[in-house]
Design a protein that fits this description.
Elements (H helix, E strand, L loop, with lengths): L1 H9 L33 H16 L6 E5 L5 H10 L3 E5 L3 H10 L5 E3 L15 E6 L8 H9 L2 E14 L8 H12 L9 E2 H10 L2 E8 L1 H14 L12 H20 L2 E10 L1
Parallel strand pairs: 1-2, 1-4, 2-3, 4-5, 5-6
Antiparallel strand pairs: 5-8, 7-8
Helix pairs in contact: 8-9
């Protein structure tokens, strides 16, 4: 039993858990997204902040907004909204118990942190509705209609939403049944259900059906998929970021990078930023 307990201690605490220290973020509230990578950039935390800023700036986040951060991970985004946008009312929703505990310890002035899935917003009792709801690099684990149904239940009039998701390009229609089956298993390894992915037009119309306006869908595949894959290949796969006793965490990151590389090169599945405004 001793070896089994030792193995369990080395396993990631949750299927979405990422050891950010292996990627170069040693902070108490580290980032855990794929990042938006500019040419030649080699700073993981900076790339993560850029991905967050692109989303926040597109929805026009400001200090007066009541903000709900869905899937807030290890808390870096919450701290970022406080420090750089001076958001006065800020709440987070996070499924991983270890992340929630860490956030509670290091962000005691946070208005609220809810330890649950963001697909259960309708079951929760919020003290107010929100002007902005953001979901940074996490929504693609969920069906868009289900996500929107939950989000709509907590929005103020004219509220703005922003999230990242995956869409199918026109190349998808040219694949045969076997090729599509292979993609289904490939995405499943990243806890993404192929059945939940839409084309860009389908995604746009889905947002319209939920009565959103000012819809913007921006393809970030090169800066996200290719950028993250390049960074891992140049750093984690060298001796630069390797750490003893963390082989399983390293393997998980390496496999994520390989998946990002394949998705970008094939051009079948695209990474998009989605923003819209409630009516």
């Amino acid at each position: 039993m001793q070896w089994f307990q030792a193995l369990r201690q080395r396993l990631p605490q949750h299927k979405y858990a990422i050891d950010a220290s292996l990627l170069g973020d040693q902070s108490q509230l580290p980032w855990s997204n794929l990042g938006y990578w500019r040419a030649g950039q080699q700073d993981y935390a900076a790339a993560c902040r850029t991905l967050a800023d692109r989303l926040a700036e597109t929805v026009g986040l400001n200090s007066k907004d009541k903000l709900l951060d869905l899937g807030c991970g290890q808390g870096a985004s919450l701290l970022h909204w406080q420090q750089h946008y001076q958001v006065q009312y800020l709440a987070g929703v996070e499924l991983q118990p270890a992340c929630v505990a860490n956030i509670q310890q290091h962000l005691p002035d946070l208005n609220a942190i809810y330890p649950t899935s963001f697909l259960r917003l309708k079951d929760m009792h919020f003290s107010q509705r929100f002007d902005v709801v953001l979901c940074l690099d996490a929504a693609y684990h969920s069906p868009v209609p289900e996500l929107l149904e939950q989000v709509c239940s907590v929005l103020n009039a004219n509220a703005r939403i922003g999230f990242h998701h995956l869409i199918l390009s026109e190349k998808w229609n040219s694949l045969n049944a076997l090729q599509k089956r292979k993609y289904q298993f490939l995405l499943k390894s990243a806890d993404v259900d192929l059945k939940n992915l839409m084309s860009e037009n389908e995604l746009y119309h889905c947002l319209e059906n939920f009565e959103f306006k000012n819809i913007q869908i921006e393809d970030l595949s090169e800066a996200v998929f290719s950028g993250f894959a390049d960074y891992v290949n140049q750093n984690l796969n060298s001796k630069k970021l390797k750490q003893k006793g963390k082989r399983l965490d390293q393997f998980k990151i390496q496999m994520t990078a390989k998946l990002c590389r394949k998705l970008y090169q094939d051009g079948i599945v695209r990474y998009v930023q989605v923003t819209a405004q409630a009516i």
